Amino acid sequence: MSSNTKQHWETVYETKTPEQVSWTQEIPETSLNFINSFQLSKEVKIIDIGGGDSHLVDFLLEQGYTNITVLDISKKALQRAQERLGKKANLITWIVSDVLDFIPDTSYDIWHDRAAFHFLTTKNQIDTYISLTQKFVSRNLIIGAFSDNGPLKCSGLEITQYSKNKMSEAFNAGFEPIKCIRETHQTPFKTAQDFVFCSFKKR
């Protein structure tokens, strides 16, 4: 794990409120729609990569999903989510890790990532991530990233932009694309960010 990267995100979550960061969503509608589109049982293993203090976990619990893991590089981010959930936080598995250092002890039926993958900017980082999904995703993959019309940076860090084709090609060896959409995310401070979201099934 890069100590600089970890410190960057710890500082963000220690100094900024959800209303002061661009990625905050009150209702993660697109992610929920993709997850529910697979029509799997509520007992499936779901992991949210880079989930931070996202509200996705709240809605998954509300919908009856029972086997949820949230991974983030920032301990503070996960603490904020746990505090928000209260006793319900005990129903979730929380993992503090850089995804590139993550060695799962299980496979996941659904691997969800909104806005973590695009922070990987070198071939080695991207290849490592893709290899992880090939080894530890048993059914479905959802990736949301800045599109080729989206920002070039986020939180002061360089990102990698993706088109629908570039996203599909990145995961082609292990996954068959199901659906890709473009989405404009309205930030809490009323700016627009263009995303591409793709869902996949294991080949």
Query: Class, according to the CATH hierarchy?
Result: Alpha Beta
Largest sheet, strands/sense/barrel: 7 strands, mixed
**In the CATH classification, which architecture applies?**
3-Layer(aba) Sandwich
H/E series: HHEHEHEEHEEEHEE
Unreliable spans? none
Radius of gyration: 16 Å
- Total number of helices: 6
Query: Quick one: how many beta strands?
Result: 9
Beta-strand portion reads 25-35%
Structural classification: alpha/beta
What is the typical, i.e. mean, pLDDT? 91
CATH topology: Rossmann fold
For the structure shown, list the relevant keywords.
203 residues; alpha/beta; Rossmann fold; 7-stranded mixed sheet; two-stranded antiparallel ribbon; 6 helices; 29% strand
In short:
This protein has a single domain, classed as Rossmann fold.
Structure description:
With 203 residues, the chain is α/β, with parallel strands linked by helices. The protein has a single domain (3-10, 26-202), classed as 3-Layer(aba) Sandwich (Rossmann fold), CATH 3.40.50.150. It is built from six helices and nine strands. It has helices at 3-15, 29-37, 56-62, 75-85, 123-136, 164-170, and strands at 46-49, 68-72, 92-96, 108-114, 137-146, 153-154, 157-158, 175-186, 192-202. The strands form two sheets. Strands 3-2-1-4-5-9-8 form a seven-stranded mixed β-sheet, with helices on both faces. Strands 6-7 form a two-stranded antiparallel ribbon. Helix 1 (3-15) runs parallel beside helix 4 (75-85). The protein is globular and about 40 Å long. The two termini are 30 Å apart.
